[in-house]
Predict the 3D structure of the following.
Amino acid sequence: MQVLAFATPLHPDWRWRIVNFAGETVEESSQRFPSIATAVTEGTRRMNELNAADLSQRSYTFLRGTSHFRNR
């Protein structure tokens, strides 16, 4: 699993999100942080608290070629 930080134009403060390797959200913060570093630090702390194993399957859709477009 990985921790990422994000902000939106409507809410410029940072929040953390824990995602598994399939890209699914495991947990997201409701608290906002003033910096990206603080958000990632808190998200990492929370991920360690969860101590959850990531049993998801990675999505490999990005490896798909464009040959299916050539047959049209």
Summary: The first strand starts at residue 2 and ends at 6. The mean pLDDT is 85. The first helix runs from residue 36 to 50. Residues 15 and 30 are 7 Å apart (CA to CA).
